[in-house]
């Protein structure tokens, strides 16, 4: 009996597939779409994690945040809605922390949403963050030497009307010339631009640094019409003192507020919670995209069943001259896997190109694991959905097959 080698079966499979190139591409289309979608979604998810980690690293590992309400639940995830028993802190809270934490840097933050107008009539609605003279240095916001400077303690104490613009904001308000030393109008008040924050790139989970503005907290309080403190950032002396500093902050704040009226957390807690949410979303969206792989597998199975019908006489002839049923089964299974893997390779290439295309606008990062997973799944799909047509081909009776018209 004729017993072809695996190489012979492989060559025969490729010849069969190449006979009808357009049908081959259309058959693999479901796999292509599925793999491309999975690659893109996992790349975006991975890119977001890397980007957010970098943003928190720029704040420093020893940053501690004090905010109104409960940010986290008992399981470490974000609390739903938060128990906002107070909407803001007051200056007395800042002074209490300064007295109790002599070795830490205390940075109160206030913010106001307002229109910023330039002298040439351009206007932009933005968030203006008010902080202390230490806010820029400790939050990686200091302008480079050719882009001006941050405001001083004296300017903060004297409510000097100065402002620092984000990179994009400066370009939108002053598109044809440098914004430094120019005047902008906020709520009827003239503010002098003394600095432009260097370009930081896209931001997730909040306004982009490039589209915000920064001013002394005393100036922002005047613009907001109140002296509320939206949040307080505490810079612990070092990484090893984070936990002890958090306990001390909690002890000080509990003298004025109920335990569930405020939250004290460091950047690692926030980072872990955000990454957990991104991971769940990425898996869920990738799972939805993977439905295309199942659809593509069904398409491959249908086309392979049609192929078995079209090649019935060929199968009968091969069996009549002694071909093993197992050889027929393996050949059709190889054809299904080739179709699936072809779709996987094209999908990976499209996913890679798509990632390159969106990367300037949205953080995305392809990993080897996502490529291996996508290609592996597409191969498995080919095997699973290729079994039925392959079995049907291998079980054909040679006599009945030769009679088939």
List the helices and strands and how they pair.
Layout: H1 6-18, H2 21-59, E1 63-68, H3 91-100, E2 105-118, E3 123-131, H4 135-138, H5 153-157, E4 162-165, H6 167-173, E5 183-186, E6 189-196, E7 213-216, H7 217-224, E8 231-235, H8 242-253, E9 262-266, H9 267-289, H10 291-310, H11 312-320, H12 325-358, H13 368-394, H14 398-403
Parallel strand pairs: 3-7, 4-6
Antiparallel strand pairs: 1-8, 1-9, 2-3, 2-5, 2-8, 4-7, 5-6
Helix pairs in contact: 1-12, 2-9, 2-10, 2-12, 2-13, 3-8, 10-12, 10-13, 12-13
What does this structure look like?
This protein is α+β, with helices and mostly antiparallel strands. It has helices spanning 6-18, 21-59, 91-100, 135-138, 153-157, 167-173, 217-224, 242-253, 267-289, 291-310, 312-320, 325-358, 368-394, 398-403, and strands at residues 63-68, 105-118, 123-131, 162-165, 183-186, 189-196, 213-216, 231-235, 262-266. It has two domains: 6-53 and 279-403, no CATH class; 87-256, no CATH class. It contains 14 helices and nine strands. It has a six-stranded mixed β-barrel with strand order 2-3-7-4-6-5. Strand 2 (105-118) and strand 3 form a beta hairpin. Helix 2 (21-59) packs antiparallel against helix 10 (291-310) and helix 12 packs antiparallel against helix 13 (368-394). The relative contact order is 0.20. The mean pLDDT is 80.
């Amino acid at each position: 009996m004729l017993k072809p080698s695996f190489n012979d079966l492989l060559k025969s499979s490729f010849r069969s597939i190449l006979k009808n190139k357009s049908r081959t591409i259309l058959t693999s289309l479901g796999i292509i779409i599925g793999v491309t979608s999975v690659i893109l979604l996992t790349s975006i998810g991975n890119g977001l994690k890397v980007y957010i980690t970098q943003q928190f690293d720029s704040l420093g590992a020893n940053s501690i945040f004090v905010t109104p309400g409960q940010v986290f639940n008992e399981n470490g995830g974000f609390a739903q809605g938060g128990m906002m028993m107070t909407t803001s802190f007051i200056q007395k809270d800042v002074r209490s922390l300064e007295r109790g934490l002599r070795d830490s840097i205390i940075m109160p933050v206030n913010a106001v949403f307002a229109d910023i107008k330039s002298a040439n009539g351009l206007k932009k609605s933005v968030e203006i963050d008010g902080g202390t003279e230490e806010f820029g240095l400790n939050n990686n916001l200091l302008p480079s030497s050719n882009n001006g400077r941050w405001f001083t303690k004296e300017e903060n104490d004297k409510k000097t009307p100065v402002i620092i613009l984000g990179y994009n904001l400066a370009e939108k308000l002053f598109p044809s010339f440098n914004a430094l030393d120019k005047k902008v109008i906020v709520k009827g008040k003239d503010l002098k631009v003394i600095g432009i924050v260097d370009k930081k790139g896209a931001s997730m989970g909040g306004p982009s640094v490039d589209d915000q503005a920064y001013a002394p907290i005393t100036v922002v309080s005047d613009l907001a019409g109140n002296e509320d403190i939206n949040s307080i950032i505490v810079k612990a002396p070092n990484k090893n003192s984070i936990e002890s500093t958090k306990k001390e902050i909690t002890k000080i704040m509990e003298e004025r507020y109920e335990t569930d009226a405020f939250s004290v957390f460091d950047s690692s807690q926030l980072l872990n919670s955000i990454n957990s949410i991104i991971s769940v979303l990425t898996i869920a969206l990738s799972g939805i995209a993977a439905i295309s792989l199942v659809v593509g597998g069904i398409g491959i199975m249908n086309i392979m069943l049609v192929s078995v019908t079209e090649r019935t006489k060929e199968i009968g002839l091969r069996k009549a001259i002694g071909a093993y049923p197992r050889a027929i089964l393996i050949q059709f299974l190889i054809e299904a896997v080739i179709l699936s893997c072809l779709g996987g390779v094209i999908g990976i290439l499209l996913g890679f190109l798509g990632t390159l295309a969106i990367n300037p606008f949205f953080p995305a990062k392809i990993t080897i694991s996502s490529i291996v997973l996508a290609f592996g799944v597409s191969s498995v799909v080919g095997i699973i959905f290729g079994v039925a047509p392959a079995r049907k081909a291998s079980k054909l009776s040679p006599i009945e097959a030769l009679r088939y018209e």
